[in-house]
Amino acid sequence: MYKSMLSAALLSVPFTSLATSQPVTLPFIAEQATIDGQLNEPSWQRAKKITIGNVTWPYENSKSPVTTYAFVYEDGETLYVGFEARDPNPELIRAFYRDRDAAWDDDLVGLKIDSYNNSQLAYQFFINPLGVQQDSIENELTKQESSSWDGIWDSVGVIHDKGYTVEVAIPLRVLNFDDSVATKTMAMEFLRFLPRSERLRISNMQIDHGNNCWICQMPSYQGFEQAKQGNNVAIIPSLVLGKNETRDIDSSQVADWESQNNTEASLDVKWGITPDITLNATINPDFSQVEADVAQLSVNNNFSLFFPEKRAFFLDNADYFASTLNLIHTRNIAQPDYGTKITGSKNGHTFAGFIANDTQTNVLIPGNLGSSLVALDEKGENGALRYRYDFESGLSLGSTATHRQSDDYKNTVYSIDSKYKPTVNDVFLVQVLKSQTQYSQDFIDELCDGDNCSQPEQVSCELNSDCDYNEGVLRVLSKEQQSGTGYYLKYQHDEKYWRAFADYNYRDADLRADLGFISQVDFKKFTTGGEYRWYGDKGNWWNRANLYADWDITHNENNELLEKEAQTSFSVSGPLQSFFEVSVEHRNRTGLRHDKSRLDIDGNTDLFSENGVGLYSDFKPTAGIFASLYMYTGNAVDLANNRVGDKFHIRPVLNMNLGKHFEVRLRHTYEQLEADGSEVFTANLSDVRLTYQFNVNSFLRLAVIYTDLERNQANYIDDVDSQYKKLATQLLYSYKLNPQTVFFAGYSDNGYQDDELSSMTKEQRTLFAKFSYAWLL
């Protein structure tokens, strides 16, 4: 009764979140299909036949040039789907042996499942013609797709002279659904991706491009009367063996290697307590990162770099913790001894929580012009809670709480948020947060590099290259206790041909969200903008074009201007799956102070003007080839010297397959800055990855990351090294029977060279192996 009254009060325009057609009944057939890529069992003849024949992208509901069918049935425990993908030119099929979740550019077939039929989340299962799996979760609240989710399911693909076929078996236990009702209804979409000169998205349904909620338009399917989630228990023991060697090379004399052997056993447990509630627990986990992050260039950047989470314990049901602002970023937790997590969803209620300790405490201290990372050599405790309720009217209400603490530090954040979609074209977002933070004197001394200090001038530059000028650090020195607030407001109207939006983001100087990724505070920013879209017809050389523009202005709490920016871009998509974009921007922004006599926590510095032009293009001219190029030229603030210089930046990328098994990925970044008539710095960053994929389960990969930074010392205010070179390599073998039964073995090392070292000198080398096995009960 209460929910009906609230929905009626909120709605002035009718909003339907679910497809309005009558649900289609899927047949129950008590026969298991043999997953071998051959649709020859009798059960497939009795399965529901679904035609996949409607192109939904880049065109809106046009006839497919190829014939595709899906055959679907369930046996109470498993959903079986067989795809018959015909192709008049099978020699053009794009399919390569790749690691899981790495074949998105290939020919694909698959399906999306909204298992609660509430238009909030959709599981995605896609398979290339060789059986390589891609799975992810699409989140309608955040408008993001997370490929970090990994389910355990079976698929096999076979290419033949008429196209290819794929068989899929998805255990219903990998889905969250309500098994308290007899007949269950789920929304589904069956898809084929056909990448040729254009990449066609072909569906069994029609999609209204004027409604940006595609999950909401998925048709419903019912059945699953005997489907139960059962015990749903997974026990995953792991064993890690490793040897790590390090040495000190920070002086003119290189120290001897110090060796440390590591043998660790750990245990992960996943238990479906009820069909709607899942408990994850881990004891003594190995959270060391197996694969190297994509290299990022950090020169002339005063904010901390963002790296995505890749660890299974935190990734499982990570979408349950999502809100508009990134308040829970688990990469902040480096090496816990234990962790436990509970997640669930039922009747519109979604909740999640976790606790985990950490053997060290890393704290990001934000300011309005930069951020700094403090590493405390002490154990910490971490916890997070998230709750959301989804009304049928298109309204969602949520709340988030996080807490971090160690002996010398404590941070707590509370937040409430809401998303309201009164029509298919309008959306309102709001999020409000408040934080309480406390620092001890020992924490403050850590900022001073171990010296007991209380004055801003005594902050050590060894914390990072720009720590002297992070007013967030200065605020810590002046206040041991901080209480901060912030909020975010956004409205967007989105039609088929255009959209317009406006948002306002406020964070006061004492706001800290240390379990999330909030790298900037002490600002209030207003942004408004929009775009217009053109849709090409079949036969045109282009299929999509877009004109975008926005304007924003940012002040600190003292109403000093931090940034005022206007930018516009025009993009077009054309043949050979090509994309081209040109952008122009004008920006007035604040630099960083270098006169310590003027350094205080309330003021900023000079205002500089930046003007630049950016170009980006990419294309996939043939199977196994992807090439892109980004270029920027214009003015840029020289943050180290508080002036404007001339910047040139270029980043080419080339990914190519040499045969079905061998892939080469090349990425290089070049950046040069000149000021006052001479060079300031020249930076080169190369990332090379060579992979031989033996089959869908195993690969061997060599990664080489090389950094070369040269500075003109005569054009710097402070003393800097004239050169810094770093080389990191990794050789990795991976075997994955499924996402949780895995074996890794590898070797990695890294070293560097600066003005004190005459040649590249290694400082760390590691040999490691990891094995985990999943028992499903």
From TrEMBL:
Q: Which CDD domains match?
A: CBM9_like_2
Keywords, sorted A to Z: Signal
Superkingdom as given in the UniProt entry: Bacteria
For this protein, the record's Pfam families field holds: CBM9_1, DUF5916
Query: Where does the UniProt annotation place the signal sequence?
Result: 1-19
DUF5916 domain: residues covered = 256-336
SUPFAM superfamilies for the chain: CBD9-like
Specify the Carbohydrate-binding domain's residue ranges. Answer: 35-191
Q: Which InterPro entries match?
A: Carb-bd_dom_fam9, DUF5916
The molecule here is called DUF5916 domain-containing protein
Which organism was this protein described from?
A: Pseudoalteromonas lipolytica
